[in-house]
Amino acid sequence: MTPEIALHLITPDCAIYHQPVGAGDNGGHTGFPADPFWGFFWPGGQALTRFILDTGHVFRGKSVLDMGCGCGASAIAALMIGASHVTANDIDPGATLLNAELNGITGNRLVVSGDNFISTGADTQTTNQYEVVLIGDLFYDTEIAADLQPWIQRMARAGTEVSH
């Protein structure tokens, strides 16, 4: 859905594509600290990234938090259309750095973080710091959804625009 963004992704041609689920959990076969979910451009992330590229005026000049950024495509898109500053947040943020470099995104407009912004007490570091919060595909698990939904509501009450 976003041919204007180049991404390093896991495909059937990659050895880790064929590893059993959980192979990375125990320091096993993948070499990653957790299963590499960032290596796929999930449908919700694709739709969100397309929306950003098509409606750039909504994001231009704004500070953006891409929560659960995965491969970083939405963060990259926000920077491509002129967001003033983007924080890409994910449990394994390395893919975002690789993909940003692949797309020529350099400089201090992109910050990549593996911190848990949703945990209790973390609201002070995110509330009013970002004008827009992007959430692509984070509602895949009831445990994450249970933490994420109240956090989204707190952010929205504080005046942050939440796009998901």
Automatic annotation (TrEMBL):
<dbReference type="Pfam" id="PF06325">
    <property type="entry name" value="PrmA"/>
</dbReference>
<comment type="similarity">
    <text>Belongs to the methyltransferase superfamily. ETFBKMT family.</text>
</comment>
<keyword id="KW-0489">Methyltransferase</keyword>
<protein>
    <recommendedName>
        <fullName>ETFB lysine methyltransferase</fullName>
    </recommendedName>
</protein>
<dbReference type="InterPro" id="IPR029063">
    <property type="entry name" value="SAM-dependent_MTases_sf"/>
</dbReference>
<dbReference type="GO" id="GO:0032259">
    <property type="term" value="P:methylation"/>
</dbReference>
<dbReference type="InterPro" id="IPR050078">
    <property type="entry name" value="Ribosomal_L11_MeTrfase_PrmA"/>
</dbReference>
<dbReference type="GO" id="GO:0016279">
    <property type="term" value="F:protein-lysine N-methyltransferase activity"/>
</dbReference>
<dbReference type="GO" id="GO:0005759">
    <property type="term" value="C:mitochondrial matrix"/>
</dbReference>
<keyword id="KW-0808">Transferase</keyword>
